[in-house]
User: Fold these one by one.
Assistant:
Number 1:
Amino acid sequence: MVITTRLIACVIFTLLVYLSTVKCRTKYQVCVVDGRGSNKKAARYCPILDEPDSRVECIIGLDRLDCLRRIAKGKADFAVLTAEDLVTAANLRIEVLITNELKYNDDDFEYEIVAVINDAAGISNRYDLRDKRFCHPGYSYDGEWTRIIANYLEVSVVPQGCDPYLTLTENRIKSSSKYFKAACKAGPWVNEPTLNQQLKQKYHNLCEVCSNPNVCNGNDEYWGRSGSLLCLTAGAGDIAWARLDDVRSQFSNATSRVTTSPEGFSYLCPDGSIIPVNSTSSPCVWVAKPWPVIATKRTSAQDIQELMSSLSHDLPNSWKSALLNLLETYHVTVTQVQPIEAVESYLARAVGFLSANSFPGCHPPRTVRMCTTSNIENAKCGWLREAAAVYGVEPDIECLKADNKTHCLQGILDSSVDLVMVPPDMIHMAKTRYNLRTLFYETAKDENKYITVAVVKSDSGIKSLSDLKGKKACFPVYDGVAWNSVLHSLNSKHLLKECPFEKGMADFFGSSCVPDLPRNESTSLRRLCKGNIYEGDYGAMRCLTHEDADVAFVSQNAFTYFFKDIKQTGNIKQTITDYKILCEKNLCHLSWAPLGQAMISTNKTDLWRKDSLDVFLQMDGLFGAEYKDPTRTLSLYGLYDGKTDVLFHDATARLRDVPIAKNMDRMVLQYEDILNNLGECIPSSSIRTLPLVSMFVYISCILFLVGNV
Ligand SMILES: *[C@@H]1O[C@H](CO)[C@@H](O)[C@H](O)[C@H]1NC(C)=O
Ligand SMILES: *[C@@H]1O[C@H](CO)[C@@H](O)[C@H](O)[C@H]1NC(C)=O
Ligand SMILES: *[C@@H]1O[C@H](CO)[C@@H](O)[C@H](O)[C@H]1NC(C)=O
Ligand SMILES: *[C@@H]1O[C@H](CO)[C@@H](O)[C@H](O)[C@H]1NC(C)=O
Ligand SMILES: *[C@@H]1O[C@H](CO)[C@@H](O)[C@H](O)[C@H]1NC(C)=O
């Protein structure tokens, strides 16, 4: 009896739980990515989805691939993805289904690319392209044409060289330069301006057809979508690589002056055949780019497709209209994909699109092996690798996980990895103990740089570095930015009286804490330390407040945020007003450093460095602060799966081969300059006292002699 009652109660309870979850599940979750400007839509439209009759709610994704991951983990039901995102999904074997396409016209694809030839050029099949003049749309509108699509014709018809003494990019350029008689490929070939200039001089025939061959940039008359067609119709080139819709409007029957008679022009097909442009048979396409799509979780696909069909702008303030607004970039029609399709088969319907993404590279394959130190870093690195490859970034990145940064540095020495991101505090060690050099820097705006300052008590009366003599000091770590910058300042002011530097510092300061100080060094520099709780910038601030020390050498931001950051401070009685930054003659910092730098072996060849630097500069352009798509594909800087500073720092402005974000940056005391000028330890006692002593001896001698006379 009791048992049956319990059983019934249990069944009812289970049912209730089940029903409540079912009720919750009926609201589908759309993963929304905010773009820039007019593409910032979440704040405006997501609240409307909270209406009681709405069947959808917003989840804010960090970027489109973040949405893809959320769908894969079952944390979102659907999102808008681009064709490139789908290739990444396919390569990473992430299962989503395609239910709808977002189109802005009736075409089957967003665009299709064709090769148009001038009949007078005597081209009767694809092999006749050799020694012809090529009109290419050029580079630098990554948002619209990926390099993969821009280079498709050349990769398909031009035999690709693999000279081991040239970068991959230069190999491609050289192959085209040898193959074509001349071309106009305007715009940046590589991201580094000097290198771009060098290549354009070396392979000048690829700019020769341009209207301004010596400049060969994005302002050229023959640059861009309409530029390549203009180049062809003006008779400058024999073959043009262009979008079919642009070809159609260029050769249309409209009476507009800009159009051209189709007579005398033909399509060159991938199979080698020729079709006149004025022919009624459908033109032959080399590669088609599929429309953006609604990608869904398998289990929700059917419902979401039906839901999509019911959306409209009929009621402007309805949740359905709000959802449409969230999904579309231009005014779109949401069409059904019938039947609902898997990514691979969906992409396979677009001519050339999948094969464009799988052309073989050089052998042996060239890679940049990046060292990571956690699962999350390795995961982000893996997504970067896939996403970059889809945009035609070469060479490939490989991600290898080590236990910590020290192991990574050792890995570079052992040649088991090529590159590691090194934080400012480890730069000196990486240079001196591991003999590494920098490939590029994570540059930042002034307010985000690592700026070393001396934090002292507001009422201490300390006015200069020399006033710190005998005082209790807290450092984040031995041999870090703060340590070396203080050492440099004191040394250049001749305040260090003993050698080596460690002894001089111990002699200058009173009881202090310098975490990770080598075992054999003076104990006074370790006296304030308590285990390792005073390690790092916040550690040094804790040391300052808990130990009632006189000075902490930390980054300006650590000082600014420490007192606000309750988690880090714990129970302390002081406030930020009890402290101030020590300034001497209006100079308030001891050094500054970029947020981090990529370090590599000094053995790497010039060639390897050029190839690898370009990989990261290209990723910076595609996934960094200056991304071109309406919404972000993947955030190089910024949260990854909700975590800060994964692999790269969130506050990075851009990656550069110089430490400054902008060329006009003139902030003094750059940390690397300081490291290069640390100098020899010369005990200042000997510098000052020796001349005095000898002077004294000399004068006594004279007095003695004079006295004797
Ligand atoms: C296309 O142009 C050719 C001449 O170049 C002409 O003979 C042919 O009739 C034209 N075809 C159509 C469909 O207009
Ligand atoms: C242009 O219009 C004429 C007459 O309408 C037609 O015969 C011809 O095929 C058209 N050409 C193209 C390229 O559409
Ligand atoms: C990395 O781990 C090793 C031990 O395997 C340790 O000696 C070293 O100090 C660690 N490095 C860092 C930066 O934590
Ligand atoms: C770098 O080159 C030096 C001398 O050429 C050699 O002794 C050393 O083993 C090389 N290191 C690596 C990591 O290849
Ligand atoms: C401590 O040891 C290192 C090398 O092990 C040496 O370079 C340094 O001079 C030593 N310091 C002192 C104070 O003896």
Number 2:
Amino acid sequence: MTESNGNTNAVHPTSRLPHVSPTFSIATRGVHGDDPIRNYTDVAPALHVSTTFRYSSDPDKLIPSSGLEDDRLELGPTITGDAHIYSRESAPNTSRLELILSSILNAPCLTYASGLASFHALLVYLNPKVVAIGGGYHGCHGVLKIYQKLTKCKIVDLFDEKSWDAAELGENDVVHLETPINPTGLAYSIVHFAQLAHKRGAVLTVDATFAPPPLQDPFAHGADFVMHSGTKYFGGHSDMLCGVIAINPKRANVKKDYWAMFQERVYLGAVMGSMEGWLGVRSLRTYELRITRQSQSADRLVGFFASCLDSTSTSPDAALVQSVVAKLGHASLQADDMKPWLAAQMPNGFGPVFAIWMKSKHLAKRLPGKMVLFHHATSLGGVESLIEWRRMSDDTVEETLCRVSVGVEAWEDLRDDFLQAFRTLTEQHN
Ligand SMILES: *Cc1c(COP(=O)(O)O)cnc(C)c1O
């Protein structure tokens, strides 16, 4: 595309760097995934705010857009940092982000204005007549209802196969799985739902927001399309909205899928701003450090509270935790699923989000206000630890549920923060 659209406004347009090796670790790809388009001498990427880009002054290089054949184009975000036309189509900072994401996710990626915008784009592209969906993020159900308003599609229960067959879910329909699921952090088998979808000719889409790589690779277990709210771990600093669609590179028509979604995005207009592209690249430099640390800390916190809830524990901490906490939700606690599929699906940790069900609504509503290191706020995935009385944003969940998103602080400090908050709750009765 660099040559074909005639834009050559790069500083060093010929200094293409070697392709980033797919054998590099995720940590290395986060820092070097965009090396192939580092056309400038800046070490930290510049922020490009232009919406429009100059064409070539060489008339021989002016090829009208109708003359472009998608087949000729390399797969993936080939808008190589110096071939942009208009920023609703592509822009330098966003392309850079997409190149790194495609390297980290091992699949061609497109970014969108938000996670929900990406889910909308996926439905618009796949155009299913029937969609099977379970619980999970309430906003995705909201998007699906809008899609249903326009298309009269049928919506059936992911966990009730009979309802799929009653609605004749089949060829080109969508089975949508979120795992681990919001807000409980529990995991479902991707292989299982891939088999159920594929035997009917349907497509499996996975919302993998809660466990991006290296925690989980849905493509390795049969997903056709993966979506992420990049607002969460890819952004990681609670300061940017972003959605990501990754397409399984083994799909027969992966190029067609990519370019059709690319073209539809031009018209849907749901692109990220350049500032978000720039922030996203900044974020991905430290992505692997953050996600692994946050997930490890969550595993430790959950392990600590689970041992406290064990009825045989006799420590003072255990008595305190038992007096206020009813139960916990996190994939690390799914002992029965571990051997059959979960250990293979999540080999590197179970994600930084977990749920605490308090013994009463009274306690759940008050716990967030007693925390010192955790903000009482919605969202997740940032460097700051958050806790939310989940009823604030989702009226389908129990009133006793608090959702916890573990940040990059030391886990021992976070544990002690919970203990002091529990102590305060047991001492106060207001
Ligand atoms: C946050 C979230 C979304 C929506 O993402 P936005 O970027 O807020 O639009 C979708 N799915 C899950 C699982 C989420 O946590």
